[in-house]
Amino acid sequence: MTRLEGKIALVTGAGAGIGGAMARVFASEGAHVYVSDVNGEAAASETASITEAGHKAEALRLDVSKGQDVVAAFRQIEDAHGRLDVIVNNAGLNVRGDFRHMSDADWTTIREVNLDGVVRIARDGFGLMKASGNASLINLASIMGHRGLRQLAGYSATKGAVAALTRALAVEYAPYGIRVNALAPGFIETALTERVLRNPLINKALIDQTPLRRFGEPEDVARAALFFASDDSGFVTGADLAVDGGMSAGL
Ligand SMILES: NC(=O)c1ccc[n+]([C@@H]2O[C@H](COP(=O)([O-])OP(=O)(O)OC[C@H]3O[C@@H](n4cnc5c(N)ncnc54)[C@H](O)[C@@H]3O)[C@@H](O)[C@H]2O)c1
Questions:
Q1: Distance CA 150, CA 148 (A)
Q2: Ligand 1: which of 37, 192, 196 to mutate, judged by most atoms within 8 Å of the beta carbon?
Q3: φ/ψ bin of 199: left (φ > 0), alpha (ψ from -120 to 50), beta (otherwise)
């Protein structure tokens, strides 16, 4: 059974990591996926592997921190399909460091992608999601929106805001047939976490705090996103689903 047959989906930051896994899973479930990324080559290569497998995907170079990129992307999708059934606000980054030394430039970099990008896509994509009449907006929050970790304060602040925005938009968009949910991954093995997880002491400390005793794979998050993207979650909106091996539940 294909759970997203006929749906049009946009995934941001889909050239790598969790976004790439979502694009592959959505396409294999029958969706036509816009694989977008600030890195146009990464988006194109992910798209090629999806279409070579016989599924539907289109590459889109899209920097979520640039208003004109977002407007152009939605115009292209509107011309082709006139609607969007699924949007995943997945693009995100981190600049690590002690909060007291964080420069304005570093804070701006984190905020422009992790929060302003989500705001822009959720706002400017409203018309296309309304045209769907049965749309799902999925925001990538994080366990770091709920818990603190040294050197991640700026990142935590944006992810907490994304979780709050998700709840507010769930209420505001509900009358238009748009569900809005967040995913709160724990530690997933991608380029984003590579450096931290390579440190043996931190690696062990994190595993010891994870009841399922492993780090997540991008596919673990993609399968949770599939639930939100599909009609299986038709009565679910405003959720912030932990995909963290139990880390937020306790030791
Ligand atoms: N990996 C984890 O442990 C983890 C945990 C919780 C939340 N998350 C969140 O999941 C999302 C994906 O993370 P990941 O681990 O796959 O990261 P990643 O670094 O592996 O991939 C991120 C992708 O986003 C793209 N990107 C960066 N800036 C962009 C921009 N301005 N516009 C468009 N694309 C941009 C990158 O080119 C890259 O392809 C992020 O929002 C991240 O904060 C990740």
A1: 7
A2: 192
A3: beta
**Which are the catalytic amino acids?**
155
Question: Could you read off the pLDDT of 59-90 as tens digits, one per residue?
Answer: 999 999 999 999 999 999 999 999 999 999 99
Name the closest-CA residue to atom 5, ligand 1.
Answer: 185
List the residue whose alpha carbon is closest to atom 23 of ligand 1.
13
pLDDT per position as a tens digit, 134-192: 999 999 999 999 999 999 999 999 999 999 999 999 999 999 999 999 999 999 999 99
Predicted model pTM: 0.99
Contact 140 CB / ligand 1 (< 6 Å): yes
Measured from the CB, is residue 245 less than 6 Å from ligand 1? no
Q: Determine if ligand 1 sits within 6 Å of the CB of residue 39.
A: yes
Residues 185, 187, 188, 189, Cα dihedral to 10°: 170
Question: Which domains are delineated in the chain?
Answer: 8-188+221-241 (3.40.50.720)
